[in-house]
Each structure stands twice: as structure tokens, then as C-alpha cells.
Design brief:
The chain is mainly β. 12% of the residues lie in helices and 42% in strands. The chain is built from 14 helices and 106 strands. The strands form 26 sheets. Strands 49, 50, 51, 53, 54 and 55 form a 6-stranded antiparallel beta sheet that branches. A hairpin with a 3-residue loop joins strand 85 and strand 86. The longest helix is centred in the first third of the chain and has 37 residues, at 126-162. The chain is extended and about 170 Å long. The chain starts with 6 loop residues before the first helix and ends with a helix.
Length: 1484
């Protein structure tokens, strides 16, 4: 019994490529890779040519990369010793039979269009192919005799076979083989053959080695078998039907196959570039067979107008040759796309990407990626949906689409478009057409009133200019967005456009029209073939041919109309004649009949009119189509539904159909497509799984949209049910003399319903010839392992398995390998089987398996698990567990995220480790989005449960709970409840027997599962939580506490974390219940949970234990506070104090008592904060009982009182009042020590605050001052003097009471004449006189502030000491030189005025060591001692200058010059001699 598919899957030609669910695609890929051509081991023929190892490889390696199975064809690759491909070899002798063609077929195919295309495409290898053909013919002649001889031997053997007892039976033979065909797209093709054989052979047709299922592709394929004539009919061929077809005939005597190829081509006139014909088999030019695989595919996509969308697929081509580029093509609705501003295409070498830069509804459709290599092509398709952008005006319609220009002429163009699917809720009133001249940004509206017809003639264009067009729709709510602009079109004569198509000049947007040399003075003749090409109620379009004469001068046209029944002709275009042989007439009366005629004119005159047209009644000639009918929705996938309908019965010029869907009962309709589809079947995607939808359809043509069809029946969105795919991976688990135990893997695609069982068939294989299939089981089996009995020992058998579900029994699996039925006697166990992967995460997964059926000589005592990367070689298998595990499951951790892994399991017994299991399918280490884990929960009743939630359930999904990965069937200890997408496993009576690993698997998903380990510690914790929930307590945010309020009131309070409105409280004191009264005030705020009891005061009788007892339903709690002994007395004392404080604060009082503050400027401020002040309140300062007088009245009510001790020069005993009370004194000193007091007083009472600043109080104050001074100190620095080296620091303020200590190498310095310290202003220094190297080291100054002090250090050593010491030596030498240099100490006047004849005697002091040399100068000339001028220098100190009798010649400038080795100095004076008479004259 074979499975079936729903009819909507049978008819849709893209079902196998884009419209399967992801589950279906995965299944087909897994099933196809299990073909008989890849299940066996790959064969390899090796030969040596010129030192290279040349291998002919089967398709096994390539099949691992692609889900699409190709027939294994040889490729001729040159490999080195490590089997690395280093080149290729073209075989010299190779017949075309290798590809499935006979000689005659090869000759015929060579003449086909496909062969011609290949020859044109690969001309570079033509000569190589010709030489190969010549060599091939010679080889064929040489082998002809051998073939003939073999044929005669074969016929002789067949003759004797027919003469034996089994002479009636013979193997299948093809009397007539199928022929290859090349057909056009959408044509039908039929392959047929005639087969003989007895028993009657079973005939199976294959496409690319995959069996053709006519039921699963109903309507596509039709199989017939009559009188040994078998045929395969392929309906409406498309590109995907290009393939190699094989027909296989099989009976008990043998099997035989024949091949034929089908090539599907497309008419070149339909698209700009015809599709290349496929090429199958190795490419003769290169000798390489390329395998193409498309992976990482894009799915059904949804976008919105204005957005950008990218579609991409990863393409794998094997073998990967450098510099080889496949041909990448993209199609939309089978139309080849070219790069444009709307479509950007990119090929990165392994990924093809199509980017739609600005989505419009024109971009909606079926997108196909086609990858063509020299060996053939692969395609992949998926649908893209584009929704309308948000309307600029609410309830405005969607934008029109597919704006095109038809019948362009000199001043006339017809613009067509398609109506939008969305009308905004109100009927569309019409459309406005806009035009824009190329090169300008201005759009001009072409029609004043909206037109309902989706075609409009635009007139008044300027010949030779190019235009763009767009269309807008309008309803009563407003205008839609404009459509996508059309392609540019030129207003010019069609014949001129045809002539210009051949030019290669670049497009400039301006067309220059040239004509033949006109004939002047000739009146043109009559226009020809006048006709009405289009008639609507808005306009009528006329067309005609120009007059037959050629070379006429500037022919133009006048159009005339005449109302039927009259002879009055009226010219329509009276002002300007038209240039184009097309004209649109507007403003005609609807319902009236008109006739039309046309006249030609030029500069020579107006010609005769044409023949008039038949009478035309103004009105729409194209009717709106009728509504479609019989809308039938059918299940497809979890998010899509197939909708089919009966076409409109009366639909002329049909554009297509719009489909709308609505959730049943909502009456909210959403468009399923925004671009009309012409087929009567459409797959609506993007639906909500599990919801029920109804659908309706309407047709559209240029006249408008039809009425909606009747609503369909409601259909639930869920995956369709089909028969399961074949199982695969048949292996033998145990073999005895007459039976075998088989195991197999579950089909990846189960058809949307649970598999109900399996059927096993077997057949005997004798001398390589398989026999007839026999049923091994009549009743289906649920397990994936079965013992086939009644076999014969030492015979060979093949097996096949079929899976069944509620839809039926699927097709059988491919025959297994041939197994020999002989008893196993090995000591080690057989292979484990049924490996399953669960709980896949980014770094871990769980692997399950079943133990081997054959255990060997001893029982199995453990298992080993191996792992490797999926693409890694066999040598890198590594163990997961070093010690064998006795369990049949293991959690594998520390996986690398994003890597694919495969696993296998081996069993061991005492004899050793047995055979490996089958390898799992590759598993990707990745946590899928939305993955959730099992959550443990304890409810309010203390019930413990495990909860698992999964959001993407299918209608057939089930939650399966297991303990230690064995399904839980006994619910005595665990109750399972499932509701919606949540499942719960409830522990009935949790205990130690419940310890284990609990897991939950969701069926009919992509492996959603999770586990939870219930350990002994976790169970203990959960039981404690359960107990707390069963016997609940009211949680408390805070326990019972006590605090004092104003007036000395005592408040007992606690806060409950959560309590309901029904909660109540009992107040207990020493086991006596308290009640509301004068002494006790109770309050219970149920919103905040605060419970309090307030007592006015405490008395000795209140000593004891206070308790609050809470109750809320069955939850209770209590909290107690014990107040006895010293605790009670202290609280009572504090209560009385607070009561007195309240009384104090009724008058002026201190909020903060008197204290002091030291500012960064080392000012000491005494301050206190006061409150409840008024105008009459007085504040008096006292020191040591004596009032500090104030010059002003205290003018504030409340604030801060301050006394500042900071000003050095301010008079003592004064205070200033500004906003605060401030008293300024001398800079702080010991005189400021004392007891300070502030008294506040008015008629309400008084308050006093005292601060003791004597002894320790004053010392603490000064320490704080010293701390500020220390922190203001600068880093310790080094300088040099002529006496030695000085270390110093500066402070911002200095106080005489400041204590500092100088340290040298952490020891206090003992001062001496050589080492001294001092203070100069704000500088603190340490002087080291005559330093030596012994003085090198670390120096520090420590400021003592009574706490930790502050220390500043400096390192006087190394370079620092050397620099300082050198500077000291320099300064010392300079000082010595300054003291010892020659000097003129004094005694010489600046000017000497003396009377002639008098004696002049001047003496000055001279100093210097050594004694300086003395020289006298007159007018800068040295003078010596003589009788007139006596010069003396005595005792080394006194120099004298004597002139015994001055005369006029002695006047002048005199100088004394003293000099020693340290320097020179001079003293100058001027001598002025006068005569007495002159003196007397001057005096007068």
C-alpha cells in the first residue's frame, strides 16, 4: 500500500522546492541521501597514467553534501599519494553509453538545441572533442569483433538456459527502449518502452535516480502499463523536469534498466535571455562532474513597501576548483532578473545574494535561484510577499502597481496599471495619472477627473522627449501613495524607435528625429484603416495608418466626429493637428453613438477624409469580471493554507485574482497577496498555527475588481497529513541459524501524524540476483527492531521496511545491503542501536541508545561513547567516557557552540568491547531561540511539580515524560497534567524512590526536550519548602520592635510582608490580652502590613514580655519583645527624657548644641543651631561666666548662631550680627581657652548650651587646627645656601602652638650649631651647615595633630644631594669672594670745590684680603706721588690724597682704583678750583 498526498500538493509545481514545511525538506534530504547508490560502499577504479594516480570516484562523497541525489557518475581526477586532487585527466576512449545514450541517440541529441547551446558555450573544447571522437571510432572498430564474439557466446548460453527445466522464465528485456526528448516549456512529453520477461517484470520509473511517485505528484506524472508497453507522461514541463530518466524492469530472474533524457527549453521571444539547457554527466571539455548543492536557504519572506530585503543562499560546488565561477541567475515568477536600481545581485564565491533595495508590490512573487555549472544546474524557490506601506491618509487605498506604457507614439502614450488589493475600506473612486519629463523633478497630473478604467491615453506630449509615469488611487477618504514609477518611454514614431534600437550611442534622454527629404507642395492623401481600438465611458481611442504616399512634407492629422443619424461633422482638434496616427477623444456623451473620420494635412493643404468608422456607442466595452466561486481551503503547513477556486465564468482580459483571509468570527479581512495571481490556486502564508480561517477571492481586469466570491468553509491552520517517508539505515543486530534481528532508523518525515507501525519485507539473493519480496510480518510492529524468522542458514537476504501512519503505509525503503544468515559466535557483544539525541544545547546534549540484542558470551556490563566533528576524518574519533557506563544514556558536555558532531556507541562484556553502532546524523551544538527548561514548583498546598512549557506546538504534539529516560506509564507516584502548551508532572508522595533524572520530550517538533535532576539534597530542600507551604507562616519584614516618639510615647510595631484583608492581630502582655483604651492605642494597616501599639508612657508595671499574634487564614505567626531589667529601665529613662525634651522645645531651644568648626583657612567657628525663635528672643554669649557684649540686636527668629575666632587684628570682645550670630576674636591662642555658653531666652522660657574648651577640649580643638595646617603644607623641597643645605615647606597658615618634628632616617634630629630648624613667615625650614656625605639620607617633617599626624619626606641622596652640595659649594665660594674682594669703603666726596692756593687733603678707607693695590687716576690717567700731589697708602686700610697748593690745573676728575685677586673697585670725585674774584662775582 502506498501513501498519498493531499490534492493541493499534487498540483502545485513548486511544492517540492519552496512550499514544503521545513520538516518536509529535511525528510526528503535524508531519504534521498539513503538511495541505493549511496548506501553501499563507494567503488573505486584505480589506474596509473604517467606517474599519477587517477581515481574514478562514485557520487558517495558528494552525496554527503547535498540532499538532492544524482546518479553516481565517474569523474576523472588526478590525485597524489595522499588522495589530494591535483588536476584532472581527460579519458581518451569513452563511449557515450557511459551516460545512458546509444550511438543513435547521441547523434540525435547532438542535433538538438541543447547540444547546440553546449557547443556554442564551450567552443574552447571543440577540437579536443573532435579528436576524442576520432580515437573513439578507431577503438570501437578494434573492439567490434570482441563484442560480436561475446554476443554469440551470450546467445549460445541463453539458448541452453531456455532448454532447461526453467525455460519459461527469463530476465527482463527491453524490446523498445525509451527515447530522449527536447521540448518547449509547458508542453507535455511522453516516454515509453516495451519490456518482455517472465514472470511479468515490475517496472519503476526514476528521475535522477529517485523513484517517481505519481500519487505524491498527482497531475504531474501519469504512468500506464498495457500489454508490456509502459509509458511515463510528464504534464506541462518546466525547468525542473530537465533530468535523466531511468526505467527499471525487475523480476525474479534479474533486473535491467534503460535511460532517456528530457531537456526543457523556453521560447527566446518570451524573455531577453533564454535559459541555458541543462547538461548532465561529466563535461567532456574538462572531464569533471560538478556536484552543486544549495544550503542555508532563504524561506518564505514578508516585507513592506519602502523596506529593503535580502535573499541569500549558500552554494557548495564539488569539487571546489579555484577560479571556476558558476552562472548565478535570479528569477521572479520565472522571469529572469537583471541588475538594476531595484535589484542588486552579489556572488561572494560561496553565497548568492539578491537585495531588493526598495520594495514595491511589483516585487512580490516566487523567487528562484538558479546555479548553472558545466554539469547541469540546481534551483531553489521561495515566495516573497510585499504589504502596502502605511497610508499617508487614514483609510486611503493602497498604491496601484505594475505601471506600464503601451503604444507609444509621437504625442500619445497609453498607460496601464493594476488595481491594488487594499481599498482602505471604501470603494476606489478612480485613478490619477501623473507624468514627469526625464531630467526634471516636476510631476504633472494628466487627468482632471479620476478614471476607473486601469488604462488611460496620455496626449499632448512633446515629440522626441522621454517621460516617466505613475498612478495614484483615490477613495472618499483620500489619496493613496503613488505607485512605483514606470520605465522611461520616448514620445516618437514607432518606426523611428525601431531604427534607433540598433544604435550604440549612449542614452541622453533626448531623441533627435530625422525624416527623409520631404516632397514640397503635395497635399497628402486619405488616412488608411481607421478603427476604434478602445472605447470606455471616459474616452475613445482611434488608430489609423498614414497615407500610402511616401516622402510627403510634415503630415499631421485632423479628427472629426459625427453623431449617428446626422450628417454634421465636427472637427475635434480645431487648433492643433496631431502628429501621431493615434488619438484619444474625451468629453463624449455616454450612451450616444458616434462615427469618426480623419483628414491628413500639411503646408500644402488638407486632404480628403478617411472612410468613417462604424457607429460606436460611448460606454465601457470591457465588463468587470464575474466573481469566482467554490473557494476551497486545504491544510498545507503549520503557517500556510492552500486556497483553490473556480475561475470567473465571464472574465475578459483577466489580470488575476486577489485572495483575502480572515480568522473565523473576526470579520477582519487581510489580503493574502498584493499582486494579482493568474492561477486558480494559491498558498496563503503567514497564518497563525491552530487558528481557523475563512477565505474569499475576487477577480480583476482593467475594468475593475469583481465582487467577492462566497466565503469558504473554515479551515484550521495545521500541517497536512501524508504517509511517512521510508525508513533508512537497516542494520543487523543479531543473527542465528534461521533468523535475523533487524534495526532501522525512523523516517525523518513522519507525514504529520504519529507512526503507528512498521512492515518488514525480505527476499533471498542467489548469485547476486534478488528474488521475490516476502512479508515478514502481517501485523505492524511498533518498535524499530524486529526478528525475521524462518530464514535458511547460509543464505543471503535483503530487507526493506515501510512505515505506516493514519494516512496509510508509505513507500518501502531502499533494499538493504545483502546479509548472510549465519549464526554469530563472536565473544564480544553486538552493536547498540536506536541512538537518539535529546536536549541539544550550545555546549551539551543527551545521547540515548538501546543495548545490543546480541550480548556475546557474557552479559553486557558497560558502554563507551565516541564523538567527533561531523566533517573530521575517521581517525579523530575520541572517547567521551574513559570508564564504561552501565546506563543507556549519557549527558555530553563541553561541546563547541556552532560545531556539528556525530556519535557512536560500543558495548563491552568480559570478553572485550564489541562492534560500533551506526553513527548518528550530524547534530549542531546550538541552543534554539525560545528554548525553555523544566521548572520545579511548590504550590500553596505544598504540592511539588515539574513544569515544562513549549510555545511552538503543532496540533499533534504531545508531552512525553520520562524518568531516567524511560517513559513514565505508571502514574502511581507521578501524575501528569497537560493543558495547552504547558505540561506538569506532580509528585503524589515524594520520597527517596523518586530520586532520578526527569525529562520531557515534545513530539512532532524539532526535538524540543529538557531534563531535571532530582538529587537527594534537592529532594530534601523541596520537602522543606513543601512543609512551609502546607503549614504556612505569615512572613514578616521586621520583627516586633520598640521605638520612642515625641512626648516620650512608646511605640511597639512590626511589619508583615504579605497579609490579606482578613488578617487579624492579638496583642498580648505577659499572657494577658490587651485591648484598645486610654493607655493602649492599636493600629493595623493591612495595605502596608504595619501593626503598631502606642503607650503614653512606661511605668514599672509595664515591665515584661509584649507579643503580637497574627493570623491570616491558616497562616499564623507571632513575634515577642522582652523588656525586663536594665533594658526596661533604660527605655523608661529615655522615654522620660524625650518627654522633657518635648517640653523644652515648646520655647526657644537648641536644635544642635554648641560646638565648633575649623575652616580650611584655620578659622575656628563656635556655632549652634536654634529653633522656635521669635522677634523678642534674645541670644547671649558667655565666656567663663562673663558676657560677650554685642553692638546690635539679634534680628532673626531661628537659624544658626556662630562665633568665629579668626581675625588677628580685630579688637577682643566684639561680635558682629548679620543673618547669623558671629563673634570675631584674635587669632586662636591659649587665651581663647575657656568655657563658652549661649543662652536663649524669651517669655516662653530659656535654653542653655555650653561648650568646654579647656584642657582636653582646647587640646582637641588645636589638634584639629593643626590638622588643617598640616594638610595645607607643601611637599618638602631642597635648596642650597652659602652656609649649607636647607630643607623647607610652606603652610597656608602658621600657629605658634604648632608642634613639628624633623626626622633623619626615621629618627628625631637632635639640633646643634650645625643642624638648626626655624620658621620664617609661613616657611618651616631645616638648615644643615657644612654638609658632608654623612648627611645623606631621608629627611622628614612631622606635623603633630594629636591623631596620626602628617609627615612630608624628601630624599637627600644620590643626584639630589650632589646637585645641592655643588650649589652650596658655589654659593660658599661666591660669598667668600664677595667678602674678600677689594673695596673702597668710603670717605671720598663726589665734588670738591676749593680756592686756588689752598691745600687739599682727602682720605678713604680701603678693604680687601689680600691687601689690594691702590692706583690714582686723573682724567683716567694714572698719577704718581710727588711734591705737589702726595699719595699715601698706610696700614693696608687708609689711602690719602694731598695737593699742597691747588691751582687751576688741578681741576678735573680724579679716581682711586683698588684691586686684588677677588676683584677691582673704584671711587670717583671731581676737583673744581676757583679764583676768589670769580667766587666773589658769582656770589654777587
Amino acid at each position: 500500500m502506498s501513501g498519498s498526498l493531499p490534492f493541493y500538493q499534487k498540483h502545485h509545481r513548486h511544492y517540492d522546492h519552496g512550499y514544503r514545511s521545513r520538516e518536509t525538506e529535511s525528510v526528503l534530504s535524508q531519504y534521498q541521501t539513503s538511495s541505493r547508490y549511496t548506501a553501499g560502499s563507494s567503488t573505486s577504479a584505480t589506474r596509473t597514467s604517467r606517474g599519477l594516480k587517477v581515481s574514478t570516484h562514485s557520487g558517495l562523497e558528494a552525496s554527503r553534501l547535498s540532499p538532492v541525489l544524482k546518479r553516481a557518475k565517474p569523474t576523472y581526477l588526478a590525485v597524489d599519494k595522499e588522495n589530494q586532487i591535483i588536476g584532472y585527466v581527460v579519458p581518451i576512449f569513452r563511449g557515450s553509453q557511459e551516460f545512458g545514450f546509444s550511438n543513435t541517440e547521441e547523434a540525435r541529441v547532438r542535433d538538438t538545441a541543447a547540444y547546440m547551446a553546449r557547443r556554442d558555450l564551450f567552443t574552447s573544447g571543440l577540437e579536443m572533442e573532435r579528436s576524442e571522437q576520432v580515437s573513439r571510432r578507431e577503438a570501437m572498430r578494434e573492439s567490434a569483433e570482441r563484442i560480436s564474439l561475446n554476443k554469440r557466446i551470450h546467445e549460445h548460453g541463453e539458448h541452453f538456459k531456455r532448454m532447461n527445466e526453467d525455460s519459461l522464465m527469463h530476465a527482463p528485456e527491453f524490446v523498445i527502449k525509451p527515447r530522449s526528448h527536447t521540448v518547449w516549456e509547458k508542453q507535455c512529453v511522453r516516454l515509453h518502452c516495451t519490456v518482455s520477461g517472465w514472470p511479468d517484470p515490475r517496472v519503476v520509473w526514476y528521475k535522477n535516480n529517485v523513484a517517481i511517485d505519481p500519487i505524491g505528484n498527482a497531475g504531474k506524472y501519469k504512468l500506464e502499463s498495457r500489454y508490456s508497453v509502459h509509458s511515463l507522461e510528464i504534464n506541462r514541463c518546466d525547468f525542473d523536469d530537465t533530468a535523466q530518466y531511468r526505467v527499471s524492469a525487475m523480476n525474479s530472474k534479474g533486473e535491467l534498466s534503460a535511460y532517456a533524457s528530457v531537456v526543457v527549453k523556453r521560447f527566446k521571444g518570451e524573455i531577453d535571455e533564454s535559459l541555458p539547457s541543462p547538461r548532465h554527466g561529466p563535461v567532456s571539455e574538462y572531464g569533471i562532474n560538478f556536484q552543486t548543492h544549495i544550503v542555508d536557504k532563504f524561506g518564505v519572506s514578508f516585507g513592506r513597501e519602502g523596506e529593503t530585503m535580502s535573499l541569500g543562499c549558500t552554494v557548495i560546488i564539488y569539487p571546489a576548483l579555484h577560479h571556476y565561477q558558476p552562472e548565478i541567475q535570479w528569477y521572479r515568477d520565472d522571469v529572469l532578473l537583471s541588475p538594476s536600481k531595484w535589484n542588486h545581485m552579489h556572488w561572494s564565491g560561496d553565497r548568492a545574494t539578491l537585495t531588493l533595495t526598495h520594495l514595491n508590490k511589483e516585487d512580490e512573487g516566487l523567487y528562484t535561484l538558479r546555479v548553472t555549472t558545466k554539469s547541469g544546474y540546481e534551483t531553489y524557490s521561495a515566495y516573497v510577499f510585499v504589504k502596502d506601506a502605511d497610508a499617508e491618509v487614514e483609510r486611503a487605498p493602497g498604491a496601484p502597481l505594475d505601471v506600464r506604457c503601451l503604444d507609444a507614439n509621437k504625442d500619445y502614450i497609453i498607460v496601464t496599471w493594476k488595481q491594488p488589493a487594499v481599498d482602505g475600506g471604501d470603494s476606489i473612486l478612480g485613478y490619477f495619472v501623473d507624468r514627469c519629463e526625464v531630467g526634471t523633478p516636476h510631476w504633472i497630473q494628466c487627468n482632471d477627473t479620476p478614471v476607473k478604467f486601469a488604462r488611460f491615453p496620455v496626449t499632448g506630449l512633446v515629440e522626441g522627449r522621454s517621460y516617466l509615469f505613475r498612478v495614484r488611487a483615490i477613495n472618499k477618504s483620500g489619496m493613496s501613495r503613488p505607485s512605483r514609477i514606470s520605465e522611461p518611454v520616448a514620445a516618437m514614431d514607432p518606426s523611428d524607435r525601431a531604427r534607433m534600437r540598433g544604435t550604440s550611442a549612449p542614452w541622453t534622454g533626448q531623441i533627435i528625429v530625422t525624416e527623409e527629404e520631404p516632397a514640397e507642395g503635395v497635399v497628402p492623401g486619405r488616412p488608411l484603416e481607421l478603427q476604434v481600438t478602445e472605447a470606455t465611458k471616459n474616452y475613445v481611442v482611434l488608430s489609423w495608418n498614414p497615407p500610402g504616399e511616401k516622402g510627403l512634407e510634415g503630415v499631421m492629422y485632423y479628427v472629426e466626429k459625427c453623431v449617428s443619424g446626422t450628417d454634421s461633422w465636427q472637427r475635434v482638434n480645431t487648433e492643433i493637428p496631431v502628429k501621431s496616427p493615434r488619438f484619444a477623444l474625451f468629453d463624449l456623451a455616454e450612451g450616444k453613438s458616434y462615427s469618426f473620420r480623419v483628414r491628413c494635412c500639411n503646408s500644402a493643404g488638407v486632404g480628403e477624409p478617411s472612410d468613417p468608422t462604424e457607429a460606436i456607442t460611448v460606454g465601457d466595452k470591457l465588463d468587470i469580471p464575474s466573481a469566482p466561486s467554490k473557494v476551497v481551503p486545504t491544510r498545507n503547513t503549520d503557517t500556510s493554507v492552500v486556497v483553490s477556486w473556480v475561475a470567473s465564468s465571464e472574465a475578459k482580459e483577466l489580470v488575476g485574482y486577489y485572495i483575502e483571509g480572515s480568522i473565523e468570527g473576526s470579520n477582519v479581512w487581510e489580503p493574502c497577496n498584493n499582486k494579482p495571481v493568474k492561477a486558480t490556486r494559491f498558498i496563503c502564508h503567514g497564518l497563525i498555527t491552530g487558528q481557523k480561517y475563512v477565505f474569499r477571492v475576487r477577480a480583476v481586469n482593467a475594468a475593475g475588481l469583481s465582487q467577492f466570491s462566497p466565503e469558504s468553509e473554515a479551515v484550521e491552520v495545521k500541517a497536512a497529513i501524508a504517509s511517512p517517508a521510508p525508513p533508512y539505515g537497516i542494520t543487523v543486530l543479531e543473527c542465528v541459524c534461521d533468523s535475523m534481528v533487524l534495526a532501522w532508523k525512523q523516517p525523518s518525515f513522519i507525514g504529520g501524524a504519529d507512526i503507528t507501525g512498521y512492515f518488514v519485507d525480505y527476499r533471498e539473493v542467489i548469485d547476486g540476483m534478488p528474488g521475490k519480496w516476502h512479508e515478514a510480518n502481517i501485523k505492524s510492529i511498533s518498535e524499530r527492531a524486529y526478528r525475521v524468522s524462518d530464514l535458511k542458514e547460509n543464505r543471503k537476504y535483503q530487507f526493506q521496511v515501510r512505515a505506516a501512519n493514519m494516512a496509510g503505509v508509505g513507500i518501502p525503503s531502499l533494499p538493504s545491503n545483502t546479509f548472510l544468515c549465519e549464526e554469530w559466535t563472536i565473544a564480544v557483544p553486538g552493536p547498540p542501536h536506536d541512538l537518539q539525541v535529546r536536549e541539544v544545547r550550545s555546549d551539551s546534549l543527551v545521547l540515548l541508545w538501546k543495548p545490543p540484542v546480541y550480548q556475546g558470551r557474557d552479559p553486557v556490563n558497560g558502554f563507551y561513547v565516541d564523538i567527533k566533528e561531523a566533517d573530521a576524518p575517521e581517525e579523530v574519533w575520541r572517547g567521551v567516557n574513559n570508564k564504561a557506563t552501565e546506563k543507556t544514556y549519557i549527558k555530553i558536555k563541553n561541546l563547541k557552540e556552532g560545531e556539528r558532531f556525530v556519535f557512536r556507541v560500543r558495548a563491552q562484556n568480559k570478553a572485550g568491547v564489541g562492534e560500533c553502532s551506526d553513527v548518528t546524523e550530524p547534530v549542531l551544538a546550538f541552543t534554539k531561540p525560545g528554548t525553555k527548561e523544566i521548572v520545579v514548583d511548590v504550590n500553596d498546598d505544598g504540592i511539588i511539580s515539574l513544569n515544562f512549557e513549549f510555545g511552538d506546538l503543532t496540533p499533534d504534539s504531545k508531552f512525553v515524560w520520562s524518568k531516567n529516560y524511560e517513559e513514565i506509564t505508571d502514574q502511581s507516584r507521578l501524575t501528569i497534567e497537560t493543558k495547552g502548551n504547558k505540561s506538569k508532572a506532580i509528585f503524589n508522595a515524594p520520597g527517596e524512590e523518586d530520586i532520578g533524572i526527569y525529562s520531557c520530550l515534545v513530539t512532532h517538533t524539532d526535538g524540543a526536550s529538557s531534563s531535571y535532576t532530582l538529587s537527594e539534597e534537592e529532594l530534601k530542600r523541596l520537602l522543606e519548602v513543601s512543609h512551609d507551604h502546607k503549614f504556612p507562616i505569615i512572613p514578616l519584614k521586621s520583627e516586633l520592635a520598640v521605638e520612642l516618639l515625641e512626648k516620650g510615647k512608646v511605640r511597639f510595631w512590626l511589619q508583615a510582608d504579605k497579609i490579606s484583608a482578613n488578617g487579624k492581630v492579638d496583642y498580648i502582655f505577659n499572657e494577658n490580652t490587651l485591648s484598645q483604651g486610654e493607655k493602649y492605642k492599636m493600629n493595623f494597616d493591612k495595605n502596608t502590613g504595619v501593626i503598631e501599639m502606642i503607650m503614653e508612657s512606661l511605668t514599672p508595671a509595664d515591665e515584661g514580655t509584649f507579643t503580637f499574634q497574627l493570623q491570616d487564614g491558616k497562616a499564623t505567626n507571632q513575634s515577642s519583645l522582652v523588656l525586663i531589667g536594665d533594658v526596661f529601665k533604660e527605655l523608661q529613662k529615655e522615654s522620660e527624657f524625650q518627654k522633657k525634651e518635648w517640653v523644652r522645645k515648646q520655647g526657644p531651644h537648641f536644635i544642635e548644641y554648641l560646638g565648633y568648626e575649623v575652616t580650611p583657612e584655620c578659622c575656628v567657628i563656635l556655632k549652634c543651631k536654634v529653633g522656635n525663635m521669635k522677634k523678642e528672643t534674645s541670644a547671649q554669649w558667655y565666656k567663663d561666666g562673663r558676657e560677650i557684649k554685642s553692638d546690635e540686636h539679634l534680628g532673626f527668629t531661628e537659624g544658626v548662631l556662630k562665633l568665629e575666632i579668626a581675625q588677628r587684628d580685630s579688637p577682643a570682645g566684639t561680635a558682629d550680627y548679620v543673618d547669623d550670630l558671629i563673634w570675631r576674636r584674635l587669632k586662636i591662642s591659649k587665651k581663647d581657652a575657656g568655657v563658652y555658653e549661649v543662652v536663649l531666652k524669651d517669655d516662653r522660657g530659656k535654653d542653655t548650651s555650653t561648650l568646654n574648651l579647656t584642657d582636653q577640649g582646647f587640646k582637641d580643638l588645636m589638634n584639629e587646627v593643626f590638622s588643617f595646617i598640616a594638610n595645607s603644607s607643601t611637599p618638602l623641597k631642597i635648596t642650597s645656601t652659602d652656609q649649607g643645605i636647607r630643607l623647607y615647606t610652606f603652610v597656608s597658615y602658621y600657629n605658634d602652638l604648632l608642634q613639628v618634628t624633623w626626622h633623619y632616617k626615621d629618627s628625631a634630629i637632635a639640633f646643634s650649631d650645625r643642624i638648626k630648624s626655624g620658621v620664617v613667615g609661613e616657611q618651616l625650614w631645616l638648615q644643615i651647615t657644612e654638609p658632608t656625605e654623612k648627611d645623606m639620607g631621608t629627611y622628614a617633617i612631622e606635623f603633630n595633630d594629636g591623631k596620626g599626624g602628617l609627615r612630608r619626606t624628601v630624599e637627600l641622596s644620590g643626584q639630589a644631594f650632589d646637585d645641592a652640595f655643588a650649589e652650596f659649594q658655589r654659593l660658599k665660594a661666591a660669598a667668600i669672594a664677595e667678602r674678600s674682594r677689594a673695596r673702597v669703603a668710603g670717605g671720598l666726596p663726589d665734588v670738591v670745590t676749593i680756592q686756588e692756593g689752598k691745600a687739599l687733603n682727602l682720605t678713604c678707607n680701603i678693604s680687601g684680603d689680600p691687601v689690594p693695590e691702590v692706583t690714582w687716576l686723573k682724567n683716567d690717567r694714572e698719577i704718581t706721588s710727588d711734591d705737589h700731589c702726595i699719595l699715601k697708602f698706610s696700614s693696608g686700610k687708609f689711602a690719602s690724597f694731598t695737593i699742597t697748593g691747588v691751582n687751576m690745573s688741578d681741576s678735573g676728575k680724579y679716581s682711586i682704583l683698588v684691586k686684588n685677586k677677588y676683584g677691582t673697585e673704584s671711587g670717583d670725585f671731581t676737583v673744581s678750583v676757583f679764583i676768589p674774584e670769580e667766587a666773589g662775582g658769582k656770589k654777587k
